[in-house]
């Protein structure tokens, strides 16, 4: 396996994964989200070349990949297989902007669980954007970097993601959650000081495999678009009164559309309410919104699975103030707001419940909001 570094590397960059505190499946409905960046993520060591060849390697795989910049011409060329499609997609997206690129050697390393719903794919793209933009001296503002990463995922890889993941991985600041308006891309850094509130946030990976491309994510998105069209609005963001959703019952699959739309409408309201509480420093009071969010994802949006539901239920019974699934759904992670010192015993009770029910052992950590994509010390890979 390659080691993380390159002889005479020109620099090292890092982009974090993210936890979405609240606001699930609202981003592609022009709504609101409230993610924060993790201290875990993707590192990339990069070195300029004298030709137009780009090489990709990973510390977790024996085989790398390569292409030439000329391979990235055309609207959407054939994509690379596997995860190398993500950094290749970034180079393609930059070419679509007619930006001057150079050949590069790139070596990636990760301490972020893959498939856990913590946005490892966006972190790969955002780390690549950061490295390429710096080394090729591209004048890209942070928002443009995030949009380039999204273009790579949506148009090159073919993953129908919203904008939250790339925005969080690029724009977040330490000690804050990022309130993102997904319609006008307005942002606000909202304080999230867990230690000051005598709280900690447990992030527990159920280790249930999950893939946005292969899951029912795309079907949920189509349902939301159908509901908005039936209600005569550009997006479900424009509905703020849940009673207006009753009109959907006249549509084919009306009950289904109503439940999908109700999740989005109520989730948007929860995001804004949580942001208000955090601004006021009332962190513990967000717990009921976390619980309500999970119930909505389970019952209306139907994107939870048995391992996730068991983890959330056990966390609450073990003393968490509130808990919910985080991420696109169908597996992945839960978050639980816990009194300081309680996250570890709560996680162990979840692990015991998993063993009793025949599920594999989960993994967990506690998280505080970290900074978005940035360059590391140029003289060190650590």
Written account of the structure:
This protein has 382 residues and is an alpha+beta fold. The chain has 2 domains: 11-189 and 370-375, Ribosomal Protein S5, domain 2, CATH 3.30.230; 192-367, GHMP kinase, C-terminal domain (Alpha-Beta Plaits). Helix content is 35%, strand content 23%. The protein is built from 9 helices and 12 strands. It has helices at residues 85-96, 120-135, 142-157, 164-171, 217-231, 254-279, 287-299, 306-317, 343-356, and strands at 11-22, 32-48, 53-58, 61-68, 104-110, 176-181, 187-191, 199-205, 322-326, 333-339, 363-367, 374-375. Strands 1, 2, 3, 4, 5, 6, 7 and 12 form an 8-stranded mixed β-sheet that branches. Strands 9-10-8-11 form a 4-stranded antiparallel β-sheet. A hairpin with a 6-residue loop joins strand 9 (322-326) and strand 10 (333-339). The radius of gyration is 21 Å and the shape is globular. The mean pLDDT is 93.
Helices and strands, with pairings:
Elements: E1 11-22, E2 32-48, E3 53-58, E4 61-68, H1 85-96, E5 104-110, H2 120-135, H3 142-157, H4 164-171, E6 176-181, E7 187-191, E8 199-205, H5 217-231, H6 254-279, H7 287-299, H8 306-317, E9 322-326, E10 333-339, H9 343-356, E11 363-367, E12 374-375
Parallel strand pairs: 3-5
Antiparallel strand pairs: 1-2, 1-12, 2-5, 2-6, 3-4, 6-7, 8-10, 8-11, 9-10
């Amino acid at each position: 396996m390659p080691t993380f570094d390159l002889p005479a590397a020109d620099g090292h960059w890092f982009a974090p994964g993210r936890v979405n505190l609240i606001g699930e499946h609202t981003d592609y409905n022009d709504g609101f989200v409230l993610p924060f960046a993790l201290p875990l993520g993707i590192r990339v060591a990069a070195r300029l070349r004298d030709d137009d060849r780009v090489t990709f390697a990973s510390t977790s795989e024996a085989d790398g990949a390569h292409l030439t910049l000329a391979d990235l011409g055309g609207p959407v060329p054939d994509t690379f297989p596997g995860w190398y499609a993500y950094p290749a997609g970034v180079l393609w997206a930059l070419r679509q902007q007619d930006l001057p690129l150079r050949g590069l050697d790139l070596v990636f390393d990760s301490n972020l669980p893959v498939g856990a719903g913590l946005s490892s794919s966006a972190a790969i793209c955002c780390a690549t954007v950061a490295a390429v933009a710096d080394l090729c001296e591209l004048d890209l503002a942070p928002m443009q970097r995030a949009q380039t990463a999204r273009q790579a995922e949506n148009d090159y890889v073919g993953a129908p993601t919203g904008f939250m993941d790339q925005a969080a991985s690029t724009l977040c600041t330490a000690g804050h959650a990022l309130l993102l308006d997904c319609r006008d891309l307005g942002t606000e850094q909202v304080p999230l000081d867990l230690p000051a509130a005598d709280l900690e946030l447990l992030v527990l990976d159920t280790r249930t495999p999950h893939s946005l491309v292969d899951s029912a994510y795309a079907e949920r998105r189509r349902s939301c678009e159908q509901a908005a069209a039936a209600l005569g609005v550009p997006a479900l963001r424009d509905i703020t009164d849940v009673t207006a959703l009753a009109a959907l019952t006249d549509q084919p699959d009306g009950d289904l559309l109503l439940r999908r739309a109700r999740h989005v409408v109520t989730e948007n309201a929860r995001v804004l309410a949580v942001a208000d509480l955090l601004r006021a420093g009332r962190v513990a009071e967000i717990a009921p919104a976390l619980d309500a969010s999970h119930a909505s994802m389970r019952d209306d949006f139907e994107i939870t699975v048995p391992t996730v539901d068991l983890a959330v239920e056990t966390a609450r019974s073990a003393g968490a103030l509130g808990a919910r699934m985080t991420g696109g759904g169908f597996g992945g992670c839960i978050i639980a707001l816990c009194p300081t010192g309680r996250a570890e015993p709560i996680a162990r009770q979840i692990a015991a419940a998993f063993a009793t029910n025949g599920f594999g052992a989960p993994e967990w950590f506690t998280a505080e909001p970290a900074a978005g994509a940035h360059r590391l010390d140029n003289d060190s890979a650590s």
